[in-house]
Structure formats: C-alpha cells, structure tokens
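Q: Protein A?
A:
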Amino acid sequence: MNLRRELARLHESRDAALAPIFGFVLLFFAWGIGAVINTGEVAYDKVRTQNAADILALAHADQMARDLNVMALNNIALTQMFVVGTVSLTMQLELIDIGVRVAMAEFQIARSAAQKCKGPPPYVAFCLFIHSIPMIQVLKVGADALAIQTRYRPDAGLATAGRLIGAFNRMNDYIVESFPRRAGQLLRMLADANRVDAFFVYPACLPGGSSECRGRGDEGGDLPLERGGLASGAAHMEMCVAAERGSDGRNRHDFMLRGFPIGKGPYTAGGAANRPHLRDHVNHTAGFASLLPFFDSVMRNSDWLIRYSTPPKYASRQSANDNHFTDLMDGVWSMACGPASGLISMAGLSLPLPRTYWIKDRSPASVMAPDVGFLAMDYEKLARLVVVARQRGGRFNPENFEEREDAYNAYAQALSFNPQALDLYTSRWTARLVPASLMDRAQEVAKALPGRAYPAGRNWFGVMKDTIQAGPDNREWSRVNLH
C-alpha cells in the first residue's frame, strides 16, 4: 500500500518540470556569452587592424620625410661643392691661359729681338737691354702664376669637389632607388609587431623605374621625386639659383641656418665680409687682381717695340675688379648653369655636375617664384595609402555562429609635407595622418590590389577588392568610405 501511495504521489508531482526550462535558459545564456565573446573579438580585431593601418601609413610617410630631409642636407652640400668646383675650374683655366700668354709673349719678345737687334754692337746691346725688360717682367708674371698654382692647387680643389659631388650624388641615388625596399622592410617589421599578415602601399612603386622595385606588393611606394627632361633642367636651375640667392624668404630655408644672409648663397656670399661675392674674393685673395693688370701694362707699355698680337695681349684693359678672371668666372658660371652645363670640358678639365631631383608635380616656374610651387602642387602626390589585412582571431564555436574566414582589411593615408617650404633645400619635412582621399578613386585602388599577396600567397584583399568592384561606380563605396 505504501508503495502504491508513493508512486501516485510522484505521478502527481510537478517538481521535475522545471529542469528542461533551466536547461533551455542555460543554453540561451551560453549562446549569449559566446555571442558577446565573439563580438568583443570582432571589435578588438577591427580596432587592432585599423590601428595597424594607421601605424604603417604614418611610418611610411615618416620614412619618406626623413629621406627627403637627408636629401635636402645633401643638396646644400652639393650646391657648395658645385660652387667650389666651378671656382676651382675657373682658376685652373685662368692659370693655363696665363701660362699660354706668357709663353707667347716670350716668343714674340725673342722674335722681335732677333729681327731688330742687328747692327753695331752698341746698338745691339741697347736693343737687347730694351727687350730684356719686358722679358723679365713677363717671366715674373709666369713665376707669380706658378706660385698661385702651388699655393691654391685649383686642380686638387676641382678633384676634391668632384669626389664629394660624386659621393653625394651616389647617396641621393641610393636613397631614391632603395626607398621601396627599405620602407617595405620597416613596414614588415611593424606589421609583424602588430599581427598584420599583409599590407599594400598605394600608389605602389613602379618596377623597372628609377627604384629597386620588385613589384611583390610588400614594398613601400616610390619617393615623390623625378629626374630627366624638364625636371632635371628645373632642378639644376634651382640649384644655381640657390647658389646665388640662398634662402629666399621662407624658401630654401637651410642656407640661412648655415650663415648665409637672406638673398645670398654660397656663390654670392662665399667670400670675406668686404668682398662677399666669391668671384671677387678669389680674384683679390689669389692675386689675379694685381697680376692681370700688371701683365696687361707690361705688354701695353712695350707694344711700341714688340708689336704683340691678341693674344697674348688682352683685348680690353685689365683692372683690379674687372679683368680676364672675373669675365671668365662669369662665363664659366653661366655655362655651368645653362642648358649646355653637361657639355663643359675645357683644357681637359671637366666640371662635375650634381644630379639633382625634382618634386613630382611641382611647377617648374617655382624655381624663380617659389610660392608658385605651393599654389600649383597636388599634395596627393606626396601622400601614400596603406591597406592592411589581418587574419581573424580565435572565436567561440565559429561554425555555430557562422563566423567568416576572410581577413579583416583596413586602410589609412599619411602625408609627407614641409611646412617651411616646398623644396629639397629645407630639411623641415615631417609626416601626419590625413583623410584617405585616395580611396575616392576606389576602383583604381582595387585594381592595384594584388590578387595573391605576400606572405603565403593568399588572397588577403580579395573580399575588399570584390566589394569595391561590385558596384558600377564609386557611389556605393562612397557610402561607407567616410574619411
């Protein structure tokens, strides 16, 4: 009987009915906790991916700014060495010219003596004595020219300037050529530190161009510089203007830091305080200011007897401040800074020329009016967009939550700029993040994105590329491309 009553009581009890409810509640909480964990992981991955894109973009722009600053410092030294080389070449040419004129004058004096000193011995002796005076004076001019050659060694100055110009040229070329590789190595190191699997810089470097670009996709973009054609002419002319005018207001600012007054450069302010123009300084310091007028007066005073030709006689009267050296210096400088600068070769002496670069899309008119460069510059030429890919992190039961397997993508844009001046003679280049305006040309970016990117040859940017290219134009993309 007791067993029957106990079975009846259990049959009527409702206590166990709550167990399935608690089971379903616990299952719901487990699913909610999983969703929260996965949502947090998604937010974390997206934030880290965007932070990594910002870091890589800023690092690329900062490396670009550093290299442009180094090139600006190199260009200051190139300008100074160019001036040294030009002056040394002029000195050497002038000394060669004096040597030739001295030899010609001695020959003409000797020929005159041989022709005119004939007759009675007293007359011959007197005639030879008269001829010996200009001969000794001309020999003294030759000795003084040799002393200038020995004291100043313009040939050594020209050779030294050539070696230094060559070294700075090679350094600038290395900076431009190796930039994609070096920037790519920096970005790869930062990508590994921030768990970024792949990155791509837009505009990408150009294989077969002036840089060591391999077109692998894990490299930096090219420096925004060019050389050749009109760009080389504008860059060379700017160097000559910098040598003459130095800092021009806020432009070519670093000449002012090196002690050159506003509007004066190494050529026009490279001498002593009382003779700042380097042409005049060398003219007086080396001794041409006294040697050439003396040589001119020797031939003019004895021309009644010798009948010099031109040369060795100078076509115009020589003075301390206006003589053959100053005229030659002006001519060499004009030739060195003119269209035929690459053809200079006189008396077997070559003037080494700096290989200067020009900022892409900068107006050539800014050589003489630097502010024109600011007005005409498309600053996107100085900006680089970096797109990154980061594999999704671990998830809670990804198959139950239908988690996607593609990588997260993010992009950022940074600008290298010079707030002081838009030139390669002011080492004030810096970098900052800017709105990703290059993504307004999303179709172009998508077309440039690699299909199989380093490392592992995976399609890290496939979903992003497909999303951009799905629409007929950029309007769909512009709805989410808020920058």
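Q: Protein B?
A:
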Amino acid sequence: MNFQSLTPKPMAQVFIVLVSIIITGIIGIPFGDPRFIIYAILLELSYIFLAFFVAKGYKMSLYVCISLAILIIVGNSFVSAHIHRIMTLSRPLNTIVLILGGYILQGFLIYTSIVAIKFSKISNQH
C-alpha cells in the first residue's frame, strides 16, 4: 500500500491547519476579553483570507502564514494575562483554546508552510 497517496498535498495541509485555527478562534472568541473582540475578529478575518489564498495556490501566502504564526506565538508569550492563565489554569476552557490555537496550531502552521515551500521548490526543479 502506498501511504504517500493517503497524505494530503503540502498546500492542503496548510489549508487544514488554517481551517483548524479559524474554528478554534470562532470557539474561543466568545470566551475572550470583550475589550479585544474587534482585534480577534480582524485576526480571524486574516486567517480566512490566508486560507482563501492558500486554497487558490498562492505560494506567497505561505510566507505570510509563517510570519503571522511567529507574531502570534511571540505576542502570546509577552501578554502577562496569557502567561498567568497558562500557569494557573484559572479559566480552563480559555486556557485550552489559547494553548491549542495560540501555540500548537501556530507551530503546525509554521511547519506545514515550510514543508509546502520546500515541496514547491523541489517540484519547480523537475
């Protein structure tokens, strides 16, 4: 059995991660701080646009995905409320959404985007 045929193409993997981030954000927005809801919605819209461009096959969007994911991870790491929430688990659901959407899925986004970039460079050489 050829297992490579069962795995989605690299751009599809990036798209799946982006959709996962969008779903996590939609779940997490109601539990977040109401003062930042506009920023959360704008961030969600940016992920929706990125998912659209990735689905269309625009390779430049992969670099934007990496940059945005790094920005989110670094930003989350410097927000004292986020650090406190992670360390104390004071709001468990909010903390799970933060860790999943703000760190784990962002890491996957960086990884899948790098793989997609490398894959596109390899396939362009042939």
